[in-house]
Amino acid sequence: EAGVAQSPRYKIIEKRQSVAFWCNPISGHATLYWYQQILGQGPKLLIQFQNNGVVDDSQLPKDRFSAERLKGVDSTLKIQPAKLEDSAVYLCASSLLKTGVNTGELFFGEGSRLTVL
Amino acid sequence: RKEVEQDPGPFNVPEGATVAFNCTYSNSASQSFFWYRQDCRKEPKLLMSVYSSGNEDGRFTAQLNRASQYISLLIRDSKLSDSATYLCVVKKDWAGNMLTFGGGTRLMVKP
């Protein structure tokens, strides 16, 4: 079974430029997440989708970050304009969501490492 | 106060040692708890769930104290391959799958 696919793996941009990351979750996984992981810290949830609807985006800096999952499958996370503090690994994850089942298991992609200069 | 707090370490232990990590969470309504493992420059992966009665998986034992809002992970007979960052994860509710990660505890096992 194919895992979560992310691209690009690495991106270097200058501040105030824009960048987009793409994620294709595991087939059949209804829930998709974008996490930001700054070096030395744990992953921080940016946005969670259930199919193509947003479940939680309370920690997404909406003045510069946007994300979409139009057809309920793959997703794009965009940053515009980027700031130095956006340098991080952007992790996409997916999970099977079964009502009443305590899964707790997220399957992560390898991440997209962003460096903002 | 952070929702999930962990001692960042690093914990430097010799092979064969027993080491324990602790984690505290702030939301008393949290429903489920997990430990994830993250190798250097890799993605996090589920290590084990944490059940109220405590549970064991080989050399790993996880325990939960709801009254103190405290989770622990014990690793016995440490191996070099156990070197990684261990992330404490809390799930807020049964209906969704919203997971909050702690900052992680780094373990280095040395020969």
Brief overview:
With 117 residues, chain A is mainly beta. Chain A is built from no helices and 11 strands. At the A-B interface, β5 of A face β5, β9 and β10 of B.
Which key terms come to mind for this protein?
heterodimer; A: 117 residues; mainly beta; seven-stranded mixed sheet; 47% strand; B: 111 residues; five-stranded antiparallel sheet; globular
Structure overview:
- The complex is a heterodimer of chains A (117) and B (111).
- Chain A has strands at residues 5-7, 10-13, 19-24, 31-37, 44-50, 53-56, 65-68, 75-79, 88-95, 107-108, 112-116.
- In chain A, 0% of the residues lie in helices and 47% in strands.
- The model of chain A has no long low-confidence stretch (mean pLDDT 92).
- In chain B, strands 2, 4, 5, 9, 10 and 11 form a 6-stranded mixed beta sheet that branches.
- The mean pLDDT of chain B is 92.
- The chains are: A mainly beta (117), B mainly beta (111).
Task: Record the SSE blueprint.
The complex is a heterodimer of chains A (117) and B (111).
Chain A: E1 5-7, E2 10-13, E3 19-24, E4 31-37, E5 44-50, E6 53-56, E7 65-68, E8 75-79, E9 88-95, E10 107-108, E11 112-116
Parallel strand pairs in A: 2-11
Antiparallel strand pairs in A: 1-3, 3-8, 4-5, 4-9, 5-6, 7-8, 9-10, 9-11
Chain B: E1 4-6, E2 11-14, E3 19-25, E4 32-38, E5 45-50, E6 55-57, E7 60-65, E8 70-75, E9 84-91, E10 99-101, E11 105-110
Parallel strand pairs in B: 2-11
Antiparallel strand pairs in B: 1-3, 3-8, 4-5, 4-9, 6-7, 7-8, 9-10, 9-11
